[in-house]
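<purpose> Linking amino acid order to shape
<body> The protein record starts here
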Amino acid sequence: APRTPTATSGPASRPPWAVDPLFAERYAPDKTSTVVSKHSQPAMLTPMQNRSSIVQAAQQAPEGPGRTPLCYKCNKVIRGRYLVALGHYYHPEEFTCCQCRKMLDEGGFFEEKGSIFCPKCYDTRYAPSCAKCKKKITGEVMHALKMTWHVQCFTCAACKTPIRNRAFYMEEGQPYCERDYEKMFGTKCRGCDFKIDAGDRFLEALGFSWHDTCFVCAICQTNLEGKTFYSKKDKPLCKSHAFSHV
């Protein structure tokens, strides 16, 4: 007995897009725009497939668009290899950089404001410039002083070590790591030999800096802040011990 079209399967049967003029419209993928994002993974390329395998797949599951891919760019049925990217299907030769037209079947890609870029074109157009060397930053970006830097360009002026996310201080327009800044510019208390931190109350006397609580008589420990004092061998003395031996 002759076989009817509904009972046939395999490459010998006519595919549904050949007999149904509304097939492409009914199985068109969603065309909503995607959010701006960076894609570090390359678009997925399907294995080599011949026309027979595509026809069979389309006939085996006509109810789902995943088995009968339509190219998002040209809206035609894909009967060979295809790419899956941004939630859509593409002919490999039609998923290209919007500037250099290079195929993006490998190596990753970027999407910016609805346009697709290869990494090289994206960096040329959108990558920030380094405040020091003025070159484009294509890798890790350092944000400091309201500017962008290569990590290797934003370094301590003394030890030349990249500062990265560590604390730093500015002195005469140059950044210094905390260790070198304290060593070169830090102020120590003459009385306790500890650093005078920002916000600490201190005073200047005898050519040195002192915590307000450390400026005391060397003999009786009376606090001398705001009082008349005497000195002997760079040591402060109260009025009562002005002539004492220290």
About this structure: Residues 3 and 31 are 39 Å apart (CA to CA).
